[in-house]
Amino acid sequence: MGDAGDAALTRHADVLPVPLERFGKTSPPPRFNDVEAYRQLYKKSIEEPDLFWAEQARSLITWQRDFGDTVHEGTFQGGDNAWFPEGLLNASFNCVDRHAKRKPDGIAIIFEPDEPSGQNRYVTWKELHWVLTRDFHVKKGDTVAIYMPMVPEALIAVLACARVGAIHSVVFGGFSANALRDRILDADTRVILTANEAIRGGKVIPLKNIVNEALSQCPNVDHCLVLQATDGPVKMIAGRDRDWRTEANKWPAVFAPVSMASEDPLFMLYTSGSTGKPKGLMHTTAGYLLGAALSTQCVFDIHADEGDVFFCGADIGWITGHSYSLYGPLMLGCTVVIFEGTPVYPTPSRYWDIISKHRVTQLYSAPTVLRLLKRAGDGYVKSDAIQEHPRVIGSVGEPLAANVWQWVHDVVGRGQIHVVDTFFQTETGSYLIAPLAGTTPIKPGCCTLPFFGVEPALLNPTTGAEITTPGEEGVLTIKRPVPSMSRTVWQDHNRFMNVYYNPYPGYYFTGDGAFRGKDGYFWIQGRVDDVINVAAHRLSTAEIEAALLEHKYMAEVAVVGVPDDLTGQAICAFVSLNRSMDSAEAVKIAKLQVSESIGKFASPKHVVIVQDLPKNRAGKIMRRLLRKILCGEEDQLGDTSTLVNPLAIPAIISVVKGKDGPAELQADPETPAAVEEEEPPIVARRMTEVEQLQAVARRLSIF
């Protein structure tokens, strides 16, 4: 790994212990007494995987027919993995029915509306069960598109599909009509569930109008069920559209859950690649449910019968929302909070208000959100109320920068909240590497140790040989299957094999780089195509970005490599500022910041000052697009349907092409992003700090 890896190990080597004072007050205590207890069970999961997974499956899942002696079949190389193949079960029964019988009047879902003054809804397990026993005329094997706001009916729609054996395909409610159309056509969907409108951050999103536009090019869709979520108007198409509540009153009761084989599809979820159409990743029933339940229980130390309340800010249009807003906690019988709005509307205290109001014990968010809240300032943090309730705050989506981790730990949690940085993917369904709350000592910026059953391997990207030297970076792969992993790309198994299993035969290829410390802790370094080789130095873009973000003037950054005749590659940093200043001065500050934080060898050759960076709807900056723009490949950008701010692309192209090279580039205030963007550009001189944060939040979709 060289100088960059040594620097990372030196800068982030401090181990912070578990906040035992806080966890010692919980009843019952954490599930694992200490990290050694974790290591013993982890060892069993690796050395006796069939025994381990059989025990967990019988503990966490209610089976209609037990799976017998066969726990796992298939291999990575064969692309034919199957778990518990002889078992029968139903996901809806496991998430609702069994809890409704045991605690009918307990709260399953707490709904927090966009406006704080709006009406909260508290859905009991009994009420949730009653809704799900209606027959809404969808049958086993049908694919159903769900395009809804974050309201209880969105979860009900998912669970209703699972109850009858239909395959749900949730599409985030911020996608365009074209993106929705493509997903409907690819999945051969005949039924779509939607709402008239969504409200996020005080803004109305006309969902049904978008659906109407998409369905004008989807002739196979026969039925559209529309929830009147607001008082706004809705255009209904005769013969196709039906009102949700009117139809619900007609549905007969009682509809028993359909028996599903373990390997029957539960859902598909689309994720975009660097080229071609989005991939519809298909997850099956038993293995996915087991992974979601076990990982939620262990990583967040869930004790549902002790009154835990789990708040995951992710929309169910993404895998985090599937696994940790819905399936994971509901499998455990844990109350979930569903939030319609954004974390900074109407003020940046909104998350903290929700935590206090609903006595949240676990919060799961993303680095983008936590950066926003940190940027808003400590004054919005109501730490007295927070201190009373949550034990755990989790982060997912990208490595949580050490300074942000420290802020959450020290300012939000006063040192008494366990901050867990987790790593998983849409493809894996549940955690690959993550600390266990109340158990695992933490290193800020590190996702720590592998989850049960997960055996990571670092490979040399050129030779494919396993790397065993601590601190040496390699390609992160997984050596053995785990139950929650996706089985295929919908109707394109060859693509599935070529992307995930063929690059390194016998391994699952995550696409990420990482290194492992002497203590076995894993540090994710970003996508492997985001590693830059400069004059024989392999530099992590994640580390350079973290160094830049340590400076108070830097709002967001993205680092990419570009070809260089002298050094092979050169570092280019795209930077958006949180204040108005001279661009030449900003370039100097950025270069000096990296030089002082890592070393002169890591200082960017080019610094491009822009107003906004292209992001997908999970909040991730699309660095591959920046790289292609710098290389003059604007006509080869591939799939951009997941961008939340597509007008950032022409604005950046204008900046890059408008000067003699990127070293002294600055954002032009009259670029298309400033003129045509629905939201005002984030420019400090034109907007208050809170307005800036709200504009960012409305354009993201992780919450």
TrEMBL record:
GO terms for molecular function: acetate-CoA ligase activity; AMP binding; ATP binding. PROSITE patterns: AMP_BINDING. Residues 97-481 form the AMP-dependent synthetase/ligase domain. It is an enzyme of class 6 (ligase). Residues 38-95 form the Acetyl-coenzyme A synthetase N-terminal domain. GO terms for cellular component: cytosol. This is Acetyl-coenzyme A synthetase.
